[in-house]
Please model this.
Amino acid sequence: MDDTDDVIIKKLNMVYHAHDKNLHILENSIGRFKHPKHTVTIAICGKYNSLHDAYKSIIEAFIHSGIHNDANVQVKWVDTEDLEQHGNEDEAFKLYTDFSNHFTGDMSNLSGFEYFGENCLSYMVHREYLFDNEFNVGVYIQIPIYNESIDDVIEKWYMLLMRFEYIKKDEQVLSLNDPRNWKTFFEARHSMPSNALQKAKEYKTASIITDTIVPPSSFKTFIKKTHSLIQYKHIDYLLFGHLGDCHLHFHLIPNAKNEDKAIECYHEIIKLSSDLGGVYSAEHGTGKRKKQDFVECYGKEAVEQIRVCKKGLDPYFLLNTGNVIDR
Model:
């Protein structure tokens, strides 16, 4: 059967040109690939290093260039976010760590610890009162006052904050110590999701908001990878939420062209949070929209456990049909 290829070529009336003599070219290439004489390291500096497929063509070019030059090309991945400031996001997260250390892990000393991050200023009213051009993220700290005067508490906290190396001037600290300031702040706080929802209505697309939470040990990794996931798909978004609980909301605002990518991205974020030991819903429950998120996080066995529990209270499955379980 050694002449099978000849039979096929003849049957198909194909023109046959012998290339046996040129096999040494392929054999030499394979030899250089398996046993290169040299090694060279090349750095790829990029924004989406956790998604190597984004650089597939570059990596393949390195492989073929290495074969041609009898060299093994080793890639060193350099994340641009590790080389530059992230809109002061690193400092905000460091504040969380420093507070946690100061209070020996007991964050109950604060009654509120919120973060206003990526792109929030684009959707916030009163931003000129709360921010200047140098800083584009912010942290809101709410401090309970019991048997002290407001002035004494402000002084104590001011002295604590100024000990941190990333707080370098008075303008970085704003005291909201009267009703007018409070009103301004809360109008700004609630304007962000409201204006983002309005933008989605203008696009006639879904407004997609995550409610994930992860353990403190996984928090920075989760935030960094989620930034990369969303930015890689070129989706507009903002980031805000409860920094004290490592519970931030990524609010995706897709347009008509990338709405499907945004929905896909949402499910990737849910899976990432689950892989890092977190859950898909920290405060807003499950319902029908997050039914699949429940399965992704806890598995089908947990769905059956819920079904058995529900049957004990609602044997005919009349209440909340379709939430987590079907009939």
